């Protein structure tokens, strides 16, 4: 199974943040989307970042903080509206189910139709399932995805939730006649039957632990200098757990971080008018000479020589 580092596609997060800002959901609050993101160390405005993912645990903290700044009805309306817009603007109808799973922290997804109706169930990692906001977010986005592929998909007639906290759910004051069952083994949305038979089971593609760490670290490169302790805190993992997992794949956290930092520096030096000192500062090096030595140790040439060859 490997390290439990759930990830979410940065495009989904950016779209959610953009909608939050444009519709001014926080207009009556003392905060802003950028401030809430900063408070929980969630990257904001990632259009220029080469990162593909954001750690979902950090996004979950953002959702929790957001819930505290909105009324229960506003929060649930925001989730529903954001999912509907994402289905159109991120073109869910063009995504295969495997591509959809690549965007969200869902391990496997099962769709089956029986005499009682259609059920769509999925499993999340333990850390994701511990927050009711996260589970609701995944439910509404999963519904939006399948609605974009099956026009005759009706309204849900039952929800099975992994969360055990009825208190967390009641805080959202969701007024619905649809039954909700807590403490289930997997999240499940049940619907009236479709006219067309629909059955499938899909497993999310596996990542190496090195890839998980790299993907979770990537959005912070050049923005925030994360050490191993901070990375572990953000992803709710023990330091030794990560060190042991990376050691089994013959690498270290420092090596993963340096590789990402050098990729960032090459992209910036080639495309933008930043000095080597500016890049070194962005990457958290004490000074330019320290960055130059590290770069040359790995690449065999200095950043200046690399820039000259690739400009």
Automatic annotation (TrEMBL):
Domain HTH araC/xylS-type, chain residue ranges per copy: 211-309
GO molecular function, one term: DNA-binding transcription factor activity
Record flagged with keyword Transferase: no
Protein's name according to its UniProt entry: HTH araC/xylS-type domain-containing protein
Chain coiled-coil ranges: none
GO CC annotations, alphabetized: cytosol
Alphabetically ordered keywords of this record: DNA-binding, Transcription, Transcription regulation
């Amino acid at each position: 199974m490997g390290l439990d580092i759930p990830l979410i596609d940065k495009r989904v997060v950016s779209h959610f943040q953009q909608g939050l800002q444009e519709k001014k959901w926080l207009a009556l609050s003392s905060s802003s989307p950028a401030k809430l993101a900063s408070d929980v160390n969630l990257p904001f405005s990632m259009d220029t970042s080469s990162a593909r993912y954001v750690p979902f645990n950090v996004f979950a903290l953002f959702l929790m903080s957001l819930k505290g700044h909105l009324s229960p009805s506003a929060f649930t309306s925001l989730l529903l509206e954001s999912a509907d817009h994402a289905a159109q603007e991120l073109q869910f109808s063009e995504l295969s189910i495997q591509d959809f799973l690549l965007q969200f922290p869902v391990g496997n997804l099962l769709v089956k139709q029986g005499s009682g109706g259609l059920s769509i169930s999925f499993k999340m990692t333990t850390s994701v399932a511990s927050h009711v906001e996260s589970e609701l977010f995944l439910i509404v986005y999963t519904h939006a995805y399948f609605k974009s592929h099956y026009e005759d998909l009706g309204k849900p007639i039952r929800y099975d939730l992994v969360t055990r906290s009825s208190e967390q759910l009641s805080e959202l004051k969701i007024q619905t006649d649809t039954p909700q069952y807590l403490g289930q083994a997997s999240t499940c949305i049940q619907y009236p039957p479709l006219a067309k038979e629909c059955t499938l089971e899909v497993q999310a593609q596996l990542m190496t632990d090195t890839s998980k760490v790299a993907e979770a670290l990537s959005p912070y490169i050049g923005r925030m200098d994360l050490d191993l302790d901070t990375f572990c805190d953000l992803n709710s993992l023990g330091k030794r757990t990560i060190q042991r997992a990376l050691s089994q794949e013959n690498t270290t956290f420092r090596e993963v971080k340096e590789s990402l930092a050098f990729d960032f520096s090459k992209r910036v030096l080639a495309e933008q008018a930043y000095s080597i000192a500016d890049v070194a500062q962005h990457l958290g090096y004490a000074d330019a000479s320290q960055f130059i030595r590290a770069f040359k140790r790995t690449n065999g040439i200095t950043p200046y020589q690399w820039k000259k060859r690739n400009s």
